[in-house]
């Protein structure tokens, strides 16, 4: 091949565009979605606070019912506690009766031949069973007595709390009350006038001390008399807290005299005749 022909081929190769290598070819980029366009397969983003809508405000909790309804609920609660207290006392009495019967059985003399081995074993077995039953009855009695005392105290303080509108802080003032005998404590727990009687005992320490020195029967009689007077007394009249109405302003000036311009026709004639005759 001549040199001229080689030069022509080289010039032709130089004019042909070169194809890019596979590794240098640009990769197609996925189209980015616009800010306001949701991506396919993805739920649209919810706004934290929609325009024009505010989260509803929480309604305030319902106020307590009126005072009579609260008092009724307190009475029902106290009545339930007293019923539980009385039921506990009945269980304690039943357990005490079983204790007495079991103690009699354990003290009964053995009526069998001491040489009779089988009879002796049977007697020992009965004694062991009665001793176990005795211990069970003692535990049941002690538990019932404890529940009787706890329910009574709970009912007593519930009554004081229910009278907080009449005797504020009375439950805290009980500590100032002189020590009372068991008869007085039992009466206060069962009385519907427990707040009034407690208020009297707290504020009259000398009379409370004199009451404690009396016999249980005399204490019960004295408290019963005071309870009867409290229950017979009329309820205290509530004073309204509303402000007084403003005083009415009364005019002290004399009524205005009619003038000829605003007189009726008959009155005007009378007025005119009076002017002419004067």
Please outline what is shown here:
Helix content is 58%, strand content 0%.
In terms of topology, how is this protein built?
Blueprint: H1 3-15, H2 67-107, H3 117-162, H4 170-173, H5 182-190, H6 194-203, H7 205-212, H8 216-232, H9 265-277
Helix pairs in contact: 2-3, 3-5, 5-6, 5-8
Count of DSSP E strands? 0
Topology order in helix (H) and strand (E) letters? HHHHHHHHH
Mean pLDDT: 75
What's the quaternary structure here? single chain
Largest sheet: none
List keywords for this structure.
278 residues, single chain, mainly alpha
Descriptive notes:
The protein has 278 residues and is mainly alpha-helical. Among the domains are: 67-151; 163-232, no CATH class. The protein is 58% helix and 0% strand. The chain has helices at 3-15, 67-107, 117-162, 170-173, 182-190, 194-203, 205-212, 216-232, 265-277. The longest helix is centred in the middle third of the chain and has 46 residues, at 117-162. Mean pLDDT is 75; it is low at 19-30 and 55-64.
């Amino acid at each position: 091949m001549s040199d001229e022909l080689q030069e022509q081929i080289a010039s032709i190769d130089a004019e042909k565009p070169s194809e890019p290598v596979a590794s240098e070819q640009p990769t197609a980029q996925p189209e980015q979605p616009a800010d306001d366009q949701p991506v396919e397969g993805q739920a649209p983003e919810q706004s934290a606070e929609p325009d024009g809508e505010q989260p509803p405000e929480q309604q305030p909790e319902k106020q307590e019912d009126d005072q009579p309804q609260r008092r009724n609920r307190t009475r029902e609660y106290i009545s339930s506690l007293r019923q539980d207290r009385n039921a506990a006392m009945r269980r304690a009495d039943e357990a005490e009766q079983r204790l007495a019967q079991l103690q009699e059985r354990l003290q009964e003399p053995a009526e069998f031949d001491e040489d009779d081995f089988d009879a002796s074993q049977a007697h020992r077995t009965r004694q062991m069973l009665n001793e176990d039953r005795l211990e069970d009855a003692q535990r049941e009695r002690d538990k019932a007595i404890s529940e009787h005392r706890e329910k009574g105290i709970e009912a007593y303080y519930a009554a004081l709390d229910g009278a907080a509108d009449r005797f504020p802080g009375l439950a805290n003032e009980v500590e100032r009350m002189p020590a009372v005998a068991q008869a007085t404590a039992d009466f206060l727990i069962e009385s519907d006038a427990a707040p009034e009687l407690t208020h009297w005992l707290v504020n009259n320490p000398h009379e409370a001390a004199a009451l404690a020195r009396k016999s249980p029967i005399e204490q019960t009689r004295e408290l019963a008399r005071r309870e009867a007077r409290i229950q017979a007394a009329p309820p205290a009249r509530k004073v309204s807290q509303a402000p007084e109405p403003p005083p009415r302003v009364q005019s002290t000036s004399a009524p205005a005299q009619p003038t000829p311009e605003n007189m009726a026709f008959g009155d005007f004639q009378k007025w005119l005749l009076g002017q002419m005759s004067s």
